[in-house]
Amino acid sequence: MPRRTFDHIPGLFLDTDYFVPEQCSELVRQSLQLYERLEATVGRAEGPLEKAHIPQPAYVRSAEHNLKSAEHFARVALVEEKQRAIRCEYFPRYGEDGHALAYFQRNANLPDFVARDLVPGVHGMVAAEGFVGLDQELTWKLTMNFYKRVNGKVAGFPFHVDIPANGVVTMILNVQREVLFQIAKEEVVTDIPLPVGALLLLSGESRYVWKHRVLPTDAPAGGTANAIERVSLVLGFQ
Ligand SMILES: O=C(O)CCC(=O)C(=O)O
Ligand SMILES: [Fe+2]
């Protein structure tokens, strides 16, 4: 990984060129297909959505932009190739307008394209970086973020610390649109622009102590309201 590290943020690694553009477009295409299937399933479902309690450290809860303590979600089952059933938790609105999120826990629930096209390479990379062994069995978690156009902006993700269940190491795969990522501890705020194709790895102090967010960006001219303008994939392992 031709990576950049940050002297004052232990555990944070950035590779701005992890994916080539063709890989990014393919990952976006597959993710949007999955989004359509999630929406179609939730649209058909009867009854109210369940409420999830998402634990966050007190300093995140009290931040100006905070995650609400209870979000509504649906447990969704999808059928992949070879009739393989997978499950996820789907939040049509996660904290803020314009942000939908699907959470896939454990290897058996990963979508086909993630298990096939993404996980082997990422496992190789974290092994090469010395986080794990190449033959080590890892339990993977995937968060798929869908950000929509709202009032001329592409939605962002307010300050948070990834929940412990996301894994000891979490990685943001920025496959669609360049964004400004910020990572902060007390009054120290560091701006990290993420180009398309970037992989940002959070481990140790950067993952557990620092909080991070993605700022909303200006939406391109001419799009339709509520269209998905950015997808990000966040992989974690335990
Ligand atoms: O969309 C992004 O780039 C960040 C997502 C994120 O921080 C998360 O899913 O925990
Ligand atoms: Fe995060």
From TrEMBL:
Keyword list, A-Z: Iron, Metal-binding, Oxidoreductase
All copies of domain Fe2OG dioxygenase, residue ranges: 137-238
Gene3D superfamilies linked to this entry: 2.60.120.1520
InterPro entries assigned to the protein according to its UniProt record, in alphabetical order: Oxoglu/Fe-dep_dioxygenase_dom
Family from the record: Belongs to the iron/ascorbate-dependent oxidoreductase family.
Name the UniProt record assigns to this protein: Fe2OG dioxygenase domain-containing protein
Organism in which the protein naturally occurs: Gemmata palustris
Lineage, highest ranks first: Bacteria, Pseudomonadati, Planctomycetota, Planctomycetia, Gemmatales
